[in-house]
Amino acid sequence: MLGQKTGGRTSGTPNKVTSELRKTLKGIMAAELESLPVTLAELPLKERLELVIKLLPFCLPKVNTISGSYDTDWMSLDEYGKRNLINR
Length: 88
Prior knowledge:
- It is a single chain.
- The chain has a domain at 16-61.
- The protein is flat.
- The protein contains three helices and no strands.
- With 88 residues, it is mainly α.
């Protein structure tokens, strides 16, 4: 029976081990996050700053550069043209 599923979990059934592991890891992370301020306060300044820098990407989104070219000269538009361009 090549290509046919003959046993195991049916499609869409959650993996029990994966869900239990996720639940356990969430509990561990919650406890660590609660104790983070105390842990940070105990670290020397240099190590504290290094840790904060490493954690920043998980708290703040990365900013991408926006570039573009515009064929409309803003200063040459009258009020109606500016409003029309903004409300597109």
